[in-house]
Amino acid sequence: VNLRRGYQKKEKEYTQAWSVSNEPLCKLCQKPCKGNNAKEPEYFEDLFCDLACYEDYRTRASSRFIRQELFQIEHGICTNCKLDCHQLATRLRPLPLERRREYVNKVAPELFARKNLLETLVNDPTEGNAWHADHIIPVFRGGGECRLENMRTLCVACHADVTAAQCVERRLIRSKARKQLKDTLNELRNNPNQTNLLADNRKETDCSEEEEEEDELLVEVPGSSYSIDQKISPAS
Ligand SMILES: [Zn+2]
Ligand SMILES: [Zn+2]
């Protein structure tokens, strides 16, 4: 199909699968596209069954791109422990399974110690199972943009360490926020002038309802780059 992408004037060619019953299929999930423009797509978005698939596709495409760019600069060498992950994956591929474990034990004991990462890598020695593109400033501290300056190569073991450390930090931030919210609510309740700001029914609110409200405010955002990328080409 020939179509325009976004506001570009030039037409570009894209491939899209069609079913035997002559229905266009989503470029990501391969389900039939039911949109108004599906049969005569005008924009790139029209090649997807819905906007969620389109966004997902774009995120994956850009994380692939980031990995490629990063590889050009850092060549798959972990910026933390200096493990050459590209070489590791390349050397593992021709080896039989048992020899792969031995090899990892020899050149990357830290990785060998993490059994789940080890098994993933030895069963499928791809670059993506050896190193990840990591956000230097993490997403939750505002480093969501996948700009190359904010990315670094980390071996899967170092990446797991960094992610674990960030989890602790995030939990700390959350519990601080929770405490602050509690204090604010208590203050409002204890101050008669300001209590009016809260609706009358707030006075009867019991603890369980209060908990619920807090959880709502502090709910985790599901679309963090960790959750998306882990599936296809890890880049977070
Ligand atoms: Zn889809
Ligand atoms: Zn490392």
UniProtKB/TrEMBL annotation:
Annotated HNH domain residues: 129-161
Residues that span the membrane, as ranges: none
Any GO molecular function: DNA endonuclease activity
Biased composition (Acidic residues): 207-218
GO cellular component: nuclear replication fork
Lineage top rank: taxon: Eukaryota
UniProt-annotated stretches for the region Disordered: 185-236
CDD domains tied to this protein: HNHc
Skewed-composition ranges (Polar residues): 187-198, 224-236
Keywords of the record: ATP-binding, Endonuclease, Helicase, Hydrolase, Nuclease, Nucleotide-binding
One GO term (biological process): DNA repair
Name the UniProt record assigns to this protein: DNA annealing helicase and endonuclease ZRANB3
